[in-house]
Write a structure and sequence with these properties.
The chain is mainly α. The protein contains five helices and no strands. Helix 2 packs across helix 5 and helix 3 packs antiparallel against helix 4. It is globular.
Length: 160
C-alpha cells in the first residue's frame, strides 16, 4: 500500500511540474502576442489543475476528503475574489484625483472589506474542519502559500 501512495505522489508531482512548465512556457510565448480570452481561460484552468494536484498531495487528502473539500474551497475562493474586486477600484484610483474625505472613505471601506474577508475565513475554517483535520488544514494553508510562491517564481523565470 505504501508503494501505491509513493508512486501516486510521484505522479502528482510530475503532473504538477508538467502543467506548471506548460503554463510558464505558454506565458513566455504570449510575450510576443496578445493572449485571447480562450487562451487565458485555458492557462488559468491548467494552473488551477496544477494547484489542486499540488495541494491534494501536500495535504494528503483522501479521495473522499478531496471530493468534499474542493467544492468548499472553490466557493471560498470565489467569494474571496468578489470581495477583493470591491477594493480594487480604490487601489487603482489616483489619489491626486480624490478629496481627503474620499480617501478617508476609501480607507474605511478597505478595512471593512478586510474584516469581511477575515469573518469569511473564520466561517470557512469551520467548514474545512468538518472535512479535514486541523493538521491537514494547517498543511493546506502552507501548501497554498507554497504553490503561489512556486508559480510566481516560474512566471518570473519564464519572463527572463
Amino acid at each position: 500500500m505504501k508503494t501505491v501512495n509513493t508512486s501516486s505522489m510521484k505522479f502528482t508531482k510530475l503532473l504538477f511540474l508538467f502543467l506548471l512548465l506548460l503554463a510558464g512556457s505558454a506565458s513566455f510565448a504570449q510575450g510576443q502576442k496578445k493572449e485571447t480570452p480562450e487562451e487565458r481561460k485555458a492557462r488559468i484552468e491548467k494552473i488551477e489543475t496544477a494547484k489542486i494536484a499540488y495541494i491534494t498531495d501536500k495535504v494528503n487528502l483522501t479521495g473522499d476528503q478531496a471530493q468534499r473539500f474542493w467544492p468548499v474551497y472553490q466557493e471560498h475562493d470565489r467569494r474571496r475574489n468578489e470581495l477583493r474586486q470591491k477594493s480594487r477600484h480604490f487601489r487603482e484610483e489616483k489619489l491626486s484625483n480624490l478629496s481627503d474625505e474620499q480617501i478617508q472613505a476609501g480607507l474605511e471601506n478597505r478595512l471593512n472589506i478586510r474584516q469581511r474577508e477575515l469573518n469569511m475565513d473564520k466561517e470557512f475554517m469551520d467548514k474545512y474542519l468538518r472535512i479535514i483535520s486541523p493538521r491537514q488544514l494547517a498543511n493546506f494553508y502552507r501548501a497554498e502559500r507554497e504553490f503561489t510562491k512556486l508559480l510566481l517564481e516560474r512566471l518570473q523565470t519564464a519572463k527572463k
